[in-house]
């Protein structure tokens, strides 16, 4: 805790300096392998700042075990009050983007593009909110730090223009980042805290499932989601990413990377049952919607092929606020 307090004190100094000069405060990326306490450290640093009446932006890019919304998404939140140990971050409207998978490697091109869009939105917000700008950002990442995972860390650092990277428990990652990052980026290495608990695959799956349940029902079952029918004709469902094809079958000049972010319309079928879908806001057209914040999530609980309609579970009553739905790999069976 003393180390964490010292890091916080150093960040506070940078915030004070930023306030004096009306410039941007510290932007911190937290990186390291799985189960080293990245999310916990992010939460501690965000909380300490919020207690001093700063309004840091917490960015969670961990699509599997993120804390802002449900798995398969990433997002950001202006934190005005500290995270509560029982209820999580206090009710504030987060900025949430669709990704659709539990791991970045499932569609790396999309992951990269969504991160770029999110960073632009945050830069934009910071330019209109001087307190948030001075308070800076704390960016939590996922534990994939090798090969393409490492490249994505570099991408995150560059688009968010981070100036501090905290590496937990990984000498090699620390050395690589020192080699590859520009000089103005300070890289700090911290030891893994002795208390960190290793989580099994099963624990992670259970925790993902309970995040979806909490989204619909609330942590204390204080929410009542709605179930209603939606006709097939009322919605357009897309999956992002074309199935992988050998290069010889691709159109001349097309690389698979473009395929990874291609929108594929989905025909309603039984296969969609139990899938969580992201609900795009507004009527901007599918292509634009993918890189804009989503307005929420629904689950398809039944597919009635005979009457061409879905039964859905939704946090808000009918009608749906938009027409475009994006499919995810996340499934949720509403069994209490
Ligand atoms: N100092 C600590 N004392 C006790 N428990 C801790 C401590 N730090 C973390 N934990 C617990 O250890 C587990 C893993 O920590 P955390 O989620 O912060 O790791 P992570 O690096 O973010 O993992 P992931 O790679 O899965 O995102 C959590 O259940 C957390 O509550
Ligand atoms: Mg984590």
Automatic annotation (TrEMBL):
Gene Ontology molecular function terms on file: ATP binding; polynucleotide 5'-hydroxyl-kinase activity
Nucleus found in the keyword field: no
Sequence ranges assigned to domain Clp1 P-loop in this UniProt record: 32-218
Taxonomy, superkingdom: Eukaryota
Keywords per UniProt: ATP-binding, Nucleotide-binding
InterPro entries per the UniProt record, alphabetical: Clp1/Grc3 (IPR045116), Clp1_C (IPR010655), Clp1_C_sf (IPR038238), CLP1_P (IPR032319), P-loop_NTPase (IPR027417)
UniProt-listed GO biological process terms: mRNA 3'-end processing; tRNA splicing, via endonucleolytic cleavage and ligation
Domain Clp1 C-terminal: 223-334
Gene Ontology, cellular component aspect: nucleus
Protein name: CLP1
